[in-house]
Amino acid sequence: MVKDIGFIGLGTVGRHIAANLLKAHYKLTVYDTKSDAVSDLVKQGAKSAASPFEVAQNKDMLIVVLPEKEEVSAALNGKEGFMEGLKPGAILVDMGTHSLEATLDLAARSSAKGVQFLEAPIWGTKEHAISGLLTVLTGGDHTLLSRCREVFSHFALNIIHVGEVGAATRMKFVVNLVQSELMVALAEGLVLGEKLGFNAEKILEVLESGGVASPLFNAKGRSIARGDFSRNLALKYVYEGLMQAKEVADKSSLELPAANAVAKVYEKAVKAGRGEEDFSAVIKELG
Question: Is there a catalytic annotation at residue 236?
Answer without folding.
Answer: no
